[in-house]
Every structure is written in C-alpha cells, then in structure tokens.
Amino acid sequence: MITIDFLRYRNLAIDTLTIQPGNTSVIGPNGSGKTTFLRICAGISLPDSGTVIIDGRLPRETEIGWVNEFPDRNILFVNGFDEIASSLRFRNLPCASIDSSVRSCAASMGITHLLKRPVREMSGGEKVLVSLAAALVCHPRVLIFDEYDSHLDARSITLIDHILGKWGADYVIRCTQQMDTALRSDHLLFFNSGRILHSGNPQQVIPLLEGTPWFPVFGGC
Questions:
Q1: How many CB atoms are located within 10 Å of the residue 53 CB?
Q2: Is the pTM of this model over 0.70?
Q3: In whole angstroms, what is the distance from residue 37 CA to residue 26 CA?
C-alpha cells in the first residue's frame, strides 16, 4: 500500500491518500499538479513536507520504473540495446545475464528490431517503447508513467496494457489524457489546482466529472 500524508510541494497539497496495489490513473487539467505528484511518488523530487511511503519504504528505497512524457528526455544512449541495458549495467550484472534480459524484454514487447537501431532514427512512439523497456527490464515493484501514451496509437496502447498485465508490477501509476485508459484502471485520481478533488474507482469518479472535458463522450462507465 502507498500512503501519503500531509504532502506539500509547490502548489501540491494532499492531506491524506492511500493507493492500493493495481493500476491507478491520474487525470486533470494542465498545471493541476499531476506531474509533480508523479515525480514525488517516483522519488525524483522530494516534498517540502509530508511523507510518501510505499509498503513501508521511501520512494528512493524502492525499485521504481519511470517513463517521462517526452521520450527524448528519457534516453541517454545511442541505440535501443544500450538504453534498455543501462540500468542492468549500473548494477554490475554479468554481461550474459544482461544480454539475455534485454533480448527477452524486447521480444516480449515486440521491439527486437529496435535493439540495434540508433535512437536518432526512431520515431517518437518507438522511443517511448524503448524507454518503457528500459523501465521494465529490472522488474520494478512500481511503474510510473507521465503521459507516455500521448505518443502512441491505440494499437500500441493496447499492446502495452497487455505487456503490463503480464509483467506483474505491484503498482502502476500513470498520468493519461486517454479516457479509455482511465476507465480500465482500478483506481482514478482527478487533480485540480494542486489538489485531489475526486478519488475512487472509475465507476465512482466518472459520474462526478459530468460537464467537464474528462467525462467520456459515450456517457460514462
């Protein structure tokens, strides 16, 4: 369980929040604090006050995979293989183990053709897939995605949902503008002006969004 208490950072203010294992979607207008919230949950930013505890541990003590909205900000290496292998190499794992893990991960995602391709020749969607593979290859307990799906078509999003279902992370937290993705979540958080206005499962939250851009055009759940 992820517990957040009396969190304050810039415009973000969350008095108390509990996130159960499963898939959590974060939605809301631009500038509402969604990315800030994800960065704090990932341990990238530290709050001014308050706590985030993931199964009894701080975010920086937890294995977390992170994928940024902008793939070019994620990728550090020249080709797909080196990018996916980077976190394993930082752990000083044996070369044979790294090679096997990278190829297995790429095969499960259908991106083996990207292993030797230079990053500069990849499309935005291909860069997202490589960044996702780099996050998944270490089998983190927590996966956090900041609107990664804005670069993907519906087929790729469905593929990734299938992959995530098999990968077995305890928590998947993602900011998304795709309401189809939000509706498939176990838990939905709606942010506005740095605060969580609504929290619950989609069946509880979606009816509260009627009259806003986040209410599905087909009429809810």
A1: 15
A2: yes
A3: 9
Provide the 10 A C-beta neighbour count for residue 102. Answer: 24
- Which domains are seen in the chain, by residue range? 1-56+171-221 (3.40.50.300)
| Token code pair at residue 30 | 């631009």
Average of per-residue pLDDT across 48-58: 97
Distance CA 164, CA 160 (A): 6
- Locate 32 and state its tokens: 């509402």
Are the C-beta atoms of 16 and 6 separated by less than 8 Å?
yes
Integer Cα distance of 23 and 2 in angstroms = 12
- E strands of 78-150, at which residues? 142-146
Give the list of residues 6+ apart from residue 29 with CB closer than 8 angstroms, or none. 191, 192
